What we know:
Strand order of the largest sheet: 3-2-1-4-5-6-7-8
Shape: globular
CATH class of the largest domain: Alpha Beta
CATH architecture of the largest domain: 3-Layer(aba) Sandwich
Number of strands: 13
Low-confidence stretches: none
Mean pLDDT: 95
Strand content: 5-15%
Amino acid sequence: MSYSRVGIVGLGYVGLSLVKSLCAKGIQVIGLDIDKTRVLDLQNSISPNESISNEDLQRYMSSGTLRVTTDPKSLKEISAVIIAVPTPLDDRNQPDYRPLQKACEIIATSLKDDVLLINESTSHPGTLRDFIAPLISQLREDSAKSIKFACSPERVNPGDPTFDHSNTPRVVSGLDEEAKRGVKDFYAEFAEEVFLASTPEVAEMSKLLENSFRLINISFINEISDYCLNRGIPIREVIAAASTKPFGFMAFYPGPGIGGHCIPVDPAYLLKDALSHGSQLPILQTSLDRNTSRHELLIEYLERELGGLSGKKILLEGVTYKPNVTDTRETPSKSLFDGLLSAGAKIAWHDPLVSNWNNSKPSKVSSEFWDATLLLVKHNQTAVSELLENSKVVYDFTGQLPSSGGRVRPI
């Protein structure tokens, strides 16, 4: 079956990247979001992030390939609908299913009888079978008997110039054979490789495994980096040396901590589900805890380096969670900012891609001569020379700055 019209529920990083990939293939897209301001901006071809450009939005809108709305009734005649809403953590760092639940409640009665409903939102194994399908069935008079329930956990890497939906393999599955065939055929229309998992639980678990693997390894290399820092051993040279082995080693690199919507979040969904099924994952739990508390070790190091933090003027440079994106979700900069502030430092921040963060505006790099600048993220637009001119010392968490008369300290 060919899917010439597709609905996308949730127009954030994932949803808008799907919009771009589908519209580029000539597939008509109806984008649905409950955020009226976001929908209005999109209707005016104003993109909220780098997953799609203003120019692309304008082109797809004017050609009729894309329509965005807050009205779920627009999905009534759509044969394939993708759920791409956030699955965040709540204020207790526990999985928050409210956005996913609300999305299901909003669209349930507006779905076509035989729609292919695909969940791309990341969650625990069993989410499609035990959460989404029963909820939608409960809300529909026909008990959703003919809906084809499927999943394909998103694999979006914001800011990646190489991998997108077309060349990133997709893992898919469904609750029955018809759903499996449908979801495989759907992604094959715009993805080069599609892996059909035997059950939705395999597909859902694969996403959690991917990001739990990364969390554990990044937490480990940060720990090794701290050890090497105390010993005066350059960690990135160690990694380069280890990387000469052609087998059995995969390079990970240290930094201020793990941010973004996936790596620090997805393992929490796995840990919660494991606990509910009587299992413990102590290695994963320790890695998550070490990432959460990483700022404490860094602040202790800076306090020793600077002879105390009280009254020290410190600039955080780069507050997004990775280079060349505007996304500040779960950024490790937040815990560093708050911790340094509590220690009595005079803290400011700057990021060429961010105009408002942490309920404040950025400072100019040249507004002070900083006792220390922490280069947490280096964007293409980061003015390194300006940082060096206005700082006694720059602590480089990126490994990209050349040594500058002892004023650059690699972390």
